Amino acid sequence: EPSSLSGLPAGVGEALEAEGVAELYPPQQAAVEAGVLDGESLVAAVPTASGKTLIAELAMLSSIQRGGKALYIVPLRALASEKKAEFERWEEFDVTVGVSTGNYDSDGEWLASRDIIVATSEKVDSLIRNGAPWIDDLTCVVSDEVHLVDDSHRGPTLEVTLAKLRKVNPGLQTVALSATVGNADVIADWLDAELVESDWRPIELHTGVHFGNAINFDDGSQREVPVERGEDQTAELVGDALDTEEGGQGGSSLVFVNSRRNAESSARKLGEVTSSRLTGEERDRLRELAEEIRGVSDTDTSEDLADAVEQGSAFHHAGLASEHRSLIEDAFRDRLIKCVSATPTLAAGVNTPARRVIVRDWRRYDGEFGGMKPLDVLEVHQMCGRAGRPGLDPYGEAVLLANDADTQEELFERYVWAEAEPVRSKLAAEPALRTHVLATIASGFAATREGLLSFLDNTLYATQTDDEGRLAAVTDTVLDYLEVNGFVERDRDGGAEGLAATGIGHTVSRLYLDPMSAAEILDGLRTVADGDADDAAADAEFVPADEAGADPDADSPGFTTYTRGDAEETDGDADRPDSGNDERPAVTPLGLYHLVSRTPDTYELYLKSGDREEYTEVCYERETEFLGDVPSEYEDVRFEDWLAALKTARLLEDWANEVDEDRIAERYGVGPGDIRGKVDTAEWLLRAAETLARDVEGIDGDVVVQVREARKRLEYGVREELLDLAGVRNVGRKRARRLYEAGIESRADLREADKAVVLGALRGRERTAERILENAGREDPSLDGVDPDSSASAAAT
Ligand code: ADP
Predict the structure, then answer these.
(1) Is the CB of 27 within 6 Å of ligand 1?
(2) N or C: at which end does the chain have fewer Cβ atoms within 10 angstroms?
(3) Which residue has the CA at smallest separation from atom 18 of ligand 1?
(4) What pTM was computed for the model?
């Protein structure tokens, strides 16, 4: 029976037809038959790239047509803007779209006027905590990649968020989109939803294993791809796909590897394969693209990526800047880039099909496991699902690699023939419950222990478990923790045990902090505020500027008498009072950066070999700056953790000391995207620390000022003296330094300065200089007829 586009909301069928959607795919048709247009809840468990998004769109559009409002929950922040752009094509039907990103502490009031809101589960969680008024108006919620409830870090948030949305709004239509998993029926059960489960794909997929001289496919067919001794299996497979003439076009490949470094080296190597197959015109276009990539940021990663792209090859991983990522994704879809070597982040959601997918690494290093661990079947299936570009390829090919017959057999058993694992809730773990129990109480979803447990009964965990006591036991442990730390008050008199969030508990919940992060931060700040750190202060010595810094001021220890910009204090011992009851340990940016880096809300950098020695040394050199106790070297795990946080804090300190991005990337073995990520997280945590310090009694007002300054230095990536200048739009850290060296030290100076000096310091860039002058509030920013001052440009180099 032909699937039909009639019966869709008015006009939608025609619009889809204009896009080339002639009829619904079978799983889409099944979803319609299950009532998704009529507000019925649905779980759609179908393979990657088989049109799940359209199912969600149909549900949202019909709900909106009935006067409702829809929420689309994405698994990754990077996907939010992509989905928004996709949904904006419905604006001609008067459907408005808003994406909610940004700080975790606002209620996103403006979103009330939008018909479709796109956000991550963390963002939705925080919007609920902050009492977003439009949450009550939702009629349809979509959860994309719902199988990620299985993820131990992020799954519980999605789980609890869906439970809350459904509790607030009992009639809510829930549409959950999932990869094919082992137990989609359980998810449907949990969400009281209809189930559409299917293996159907718009384009045929052949999965196989390459071993020896051929790929052996699951349908019994073979494709000869000889690999001579000394040749590289992956390179031969990429070359073979490109040389295939079927469909008139050589086929592109997507190569999945297990680490960023491997993605980069693979891209370099495969560039040799792709470059020999480029046309002259492609070469020119790739050179232009490479220039654009170099323009995004001034780092080795950027340079390496551009070099590979000139050869028609690229790498893709979470360490890339988002501009880099989208340039690569677009050029790959345009068939200009012939091969992308990627870590699995790409497989999760970004629509980048390739003729051939090569799963080069099927094992990955796992810290908790303590070695190389095979990937989940679900993950490998999602990678394989990226094979085959509808309308371009006759079929898609997914290939795993084996070096011997045994491995070939293992790969068939483990991945080709296997079903994906069942999804399992990770909610009943302390870290997850710590934060969600507090938020559930603070936002009024439960006022008693019984109420809390009955709320938790609406989760996937409760649907799945046969150990009823476990959730209650972990919940009680967590309640004890929250009580001891002053976030929750319990009233044990009377029948039901009453629960209420304290003032600070409310603040922690709204700030979206893990309660353990809040406790750590408060403990650290309190060591500054009370007198118990006298000894540390008495031992304090002047700390020399670190090797990277030329300016000793930035790292100077501050005492109670420390005031901003007080140069005399920076010479340390000379002016330090000998003793005194109001002595406190120095609050330095490093101390604050370390404090936030060791909270569970920061992913610390890994310690590599040699790091332990290096950072142990730093730990002793800078001992006086840490807030709170330093664990003993003999407490192995705790100490390692402490050092990892120190490494992270040093990265942040380098950034705030104006060390080049490039140099930081090299020193810590990270990409520019990681630097941005660490800085953003630390900024957020310091902002939260500032609020906590202000809200809690017994923390000194000076500390609040120091926290704010440490945060501002991260925000702009500059030393203290540049904060004012760097705050002017379009200035940035490098230009601020050049202006400062030319004698322009503040926003006010910019308004008064000799224009020739300004222009010289900005290396003669007239348009930039005019914009900066305007942003600084200069009445007449025009630079007509002004020549850059040559002495200033000399000073700037
Ligand atoms: P999924 O979310 O399942 O991974 P997508 O929703 O991204 O897959 O769909 C993959 C591609 O298929 C998209 O480019 C989409 O436009 C296209 N598509 C979806 N439904 C149809 C259809 N019925 N006919 C033709 N193309 C479709």
Answers:
(1) no
(2) N
(3) 51
(4) 0.81
